[in-house]
């Protein structure tokens, strides 16, 4: 709005004997203000609101104001949203007779203007005097759940009443048509949005938003637990992808002492097991004998402790016979350390926070099976070349809090993730990090500071032949591999054994199978990384993996314009190296005889070319580890020439400027020119072939 128009509006108000009545007369005789956006009516109304603040004597009271309030109330149902607050403020509707306001809203409701009635109730804070079920039912039938949330947002008692109502509707014995029948002629009625599934999702959303105890909604919680039970039975008896002990842990924690769920469990057991097995699990889950069918109850009486031990032993023997089909952890069991004290954890830090370290990082948490809240990390796995550390986060956080050092753990994790000299390997890291933030809120900004992070999920779409169908063909009847297990199978030859994936990771002590699974999940990342770096071409990857992996997160792409792959500028050798200080002037010229390098094993062509030009070259063999280049460089004072991911590791193990990343997409000649230019090596005619016999 121009300043000139604002001044004109204010002069107009000053000339009016009754500005409030004048504004109403203008709005009533004009249709312009009913449009969306900043109409002239909106500008005049908001200017009056500001003008009144500067002229406190203007607001009226008594009979005259009541008449104006009655007129403005009649307009509010047709009023655009942006005019509601200014008009309510100008005409002091909060001071109007509450019964009169309730009567007006009730009139709107009876006319079928349910949305308008709810919005006006929220603005005038009338909700405590209204029937929450009556006000919210038509809104839910019109798929206006967000308005329902706003309606109860400031009133805990109304939140509880609404949740109890929704929970009653989710009872399987409740007939939802009893609710919908009176609203058959409702405009914008969406019956497909009004069913138990949609309503139970709304219940969980409200429970989480308002931090209400889920026990308030037993029907919804029981139905969610029943779905969990069905899922667990499917995993155990159809897919056969859960160990008996792991399955039993979840069944027990899901059912607990809930008698309705115990009854459902018995029915599922009879559907999937014989009577003896059903009786054994009924006993294991403490189902009261009086709840069991006659045949199961009879078998229940015959059971002895020894029977249970024998059955579990047989099952475990069967499970162990399958292990040879899966990836095996290549380090000894004594090199897997389960850390529960800060003394142990500090020793772990000393090993982990070393420049040049490459670490496989993974996390485990108890499956939520769709219950309220984000999962909290129960175990943080850090895998090094020769050992794996499993950090018991709940125990360590508890100890730190007791010692008054709550930030101790978050400080270590931030140091690890922000250190560019330490390469962190993960798979689907953004999911892990969001759970880590839910566990330790001090880490909420960590993602912005992360450096040296490699998310192997970024490889999935690039590796040749990597698809669940491919895995399924290879393994026949077994469920097709997916995710990290599929990548492990493709790169290392055997998939991960995921039978412990859905374990109860909060239960202590952890079972031996859980410890081995957790260590394998983190350690396999080291082996994948090493194999892909050594021979990327055989997996259909470009030689320079840096562009595709380092620092990439497994997030959904944001909806913003980005360069297409074809448009992306090619990486030069210097761009591959990541951020570094550019020298203010080029290095002093040197001859090839003074220039000593060690070439990583993916650059043998470059090494041979440089040797032809008279450069002192050492070449790594194909089977050599990349880290051998750093050893040679330190011992013999050589510059490391490498490419792709190994650069991230090697550059931190030698002095500044002693490691150079070459663009592998170029031929040996172009690579050599790049190196000579960067190090200012001047080649003369006599240098060529000077080192050749």
Structure description:
With 693 residues, this protein is an alpha/beta fold. Among the domains are: 219-304, no CATH class; 336-463 and 483-548, Ribonuclease H-like superfamily/Ribonuclease H (Nucleotidyltransferase, domain 5, 2-Layer Sandwich); 592-679, Rossmann fold (3-Layer(aba) Sandwich), CATH 3.40.50. The chain is built from 32 helices and ten strands. Strands 1-4-3-2-5-6 form a six-stranded mixed beta sheet, sandwiched between helices. The protein has a four-stranded parallel beta sheet with strand order 8-7-9-10, with helices on both faces. Helix 13 runs parallel beside helix 15 (259-272). It starts with a helix and ends in a 14-residue tail after the last helix.
CATH architectural label of the domain at 336-463 and 483-548: 2-Layer Sandwich
Beta strand %? 5-15%
Mean pLDDT metric:
84
Q: How would you describe the shape? A: flat
> What class do helices, strands and sheet pairing give?
alpha/beta
The CATH topology of the domain at 336-463 and 483-548 corresponds to Nucleotidyltransferase, domain 5
* Spans where pLDDT lies below 50 across 5 or more residues: 313-319, 469-477, 551-584
Helical amount among residues, as a percent range? 40-55%
